[in-house]
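Pasting as-is:
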Amino acid sequence: MAEVHIKINNQFVTAEEGDTILEAANKSGIQIPTLCYLKNVIRSGACRVCLVEVKGARALLSACTTPVSEGMEVWTNSERAIRGRKTTVELIMSNHNKNCLSCKRNTNCELQRLCAELGIRQNRFEGEHTPPTFEDASWGIVRDTSKCVLCERCIGTCQNVQGIGILGLQNRGFKTICGPIYNGSFNDVNCMQCGQCVIACPVGALTEKEEIHEVIEAINDPDKVVICQTAPAVRASLGEEFGMPIGSLVTGKMVAALKRCGFDRVYDTNFGADLTIMEEGTELLKRVTEGGTLPMFTSCSPGWVRYIEYEYPELLPHLSSAKSPHMMFGAICKTYWAEKHNVDPSKIFVVSIMPCIAKKSEARKPELHTGEYQDVDAVLTTREAGRLIKMYGMDDLDALEDEAFDQDLLGEYTGAGVIFGATGGVMEAALRTVKQKLDGKPLERVDFMECRGMAGVKEAQIDLNGTKIWIAITSSMTCAKPLLEDVRAGISKYTFIEVMGCPGGCINGGGQSIVSARKKHGRIGYTYKDRRMKALYDEDRFKQKRVSMDNSQIQQLYDEFLGEPGSEIAEKLLHTTYSPKQKFHLVGMEE
C-alpha cells in the first residue's frame, strides 16, 4: 500500500493508505482513548470517545472511523478535543448505574478508567435513566442494561466473531437497549453461552453468573467432601487477576491458594483430558477402521456443541460422543474415586474452575448426568476463582509458595493434557496417542507443529502408520462455518476436525481474565493469546510424560475399573448423546 504522511500532535507519522487516524496513532505509540472500538471486530464510532481535532475540519472527528489523508494534521489532546471527549463521557455517565463498588468490573472497567483519566468526579448532567433490564435466567450470562453504554462491542463480537448475531439494539432514542430479540433471555435464543460478549463488554453490563457463594457453602459444610479441578488454560490467566504479567504460569501458586480456601482435594482437569484422549482416540480409530461417520468433530468445547445443536443439527452424527474432560473427571470422581475412598457419592461436591462460561450450562445438561447425581456441582470461571482467593485474604498470589496437585488416583497428567487449553492442542494430544498406539512404540517426534499457531483454520496431512489422513483445526464459529458447510455438502476431505468455540481456544475463553481493548490493540499488537498459549506449551515441553496413554494412573483406572476404552462402563460414564435444539423459545416467534 502507498504511504501517507501526516502529523499527529506535531509529530511526523507515516501511515498506510486506508488506515484510520486511530490505527496510524497506535502504530506510532500515540494513545487515543476508545470505548466502542475493537480491532477487526467493530469500529462504529458510536461512543465518540476517540474524538480528535483535525486541521480544517469544522467539527471534532472520531479517530476510529476517519481515514488518514496526505498532509493531514491531527491533535489528540488539544483543549477542544479533551473538552469534547470529557463531555461525551459525562453524557454516557449520566445514564449509567454508578454502583462501582459492588460491580464485578470495579478497577477493571474501561469507563471507570476514562473517568479517572479525564478527571470526571461529579455528575454534571442529571436526569432520568433509561428503564433497565436485569436478566439472569441462563446458567452462564447475566445482563444488566443499567450499566450498558451502547458501545455495540457485544453485538459486533457475536456477529463478526461467532457469526450468530443474537444481540442487537432495540427501541429508539432514550429507550434504546441492547439484548437478545424482544429483550428476552439468553436462554430464549440460539446463544452458545461462549461468553465472548462478556469479555468484549467494556463495563459490567454483561458478566458471568456467579457461583462463588454456593462453593463457599459447600466448603463450610462438614458433611461435604469438596473436590476442585482446574482446567489447563486457567493457570495461564489467573495471575492476571493479581496484577501479574499476561502469560504468567501460576500452576503451583494456584494450587496453594485453592488448598488454603479449604478444598478437600485439588486436582488437575488434565487427568480428565488424558482420559478424553483415550476415549476420543479410540472412537476415531473405530470410525476409520469400521466405517463410522467421518469426519469426526471434537466435542470438548461446550459452546461449539451448543452451536452445532442449534445451527447444524443434521451434522450431530459427526460429533464425538466423548464428554469434555471436566465432565469425565466428575463422573470418575463420583464412581471410581468414591469407591476407592469409601465415600458416599451424594456427599461429594465437585467444583470445576474453567476458562469457559459455557461450562456452567454444560454441567446442568441432563444428557451429561451419569446417574442420580450431577457429576459436576459448580463451575467457577478464572475470574471467579480470583475473587474467591481474594475473599480468603490472599491478595498477592505471587507471594505463595508453590504446592503440588493432590496425587491420589486422579492426580497424574501428561503434557498432552496441558495443551488442551490452546487451539490445536486437542488435535495434537489425540495424534500423539493415536500414532503411538498404531506404531506400537514410543514416538520419535512428540511435537506436531502443524497443529500450533493462531490461524483461524489450520490443516495438515498426517501419516498414521501408513494411512494418510487430513486433519483440520479451527476456533470461533466464523472460521468453523466453511468447514461445516463442506461437510454438509459432502465434499470435506478431512478425517478429524478440532473445533473450539472461542478464538484461540480456551486460553481466550469467555471466563478468562479480561484484557482491556487498549492492551489488545496497542502499538505492536498486544498478543495476549500468544503469551497464554506459550505458557501451556512451555509446561508441556518440560513434562516427563507427554503422551496421554503413558499416564500410569489412567492405565490403572482402566485396569481396575473401566476395562478398556470404549467398554460398556466407559460408554455409560464417559460418553453422551446430542439432540437438535430449537433456536427460539419466545411466545409468538416462529422457529
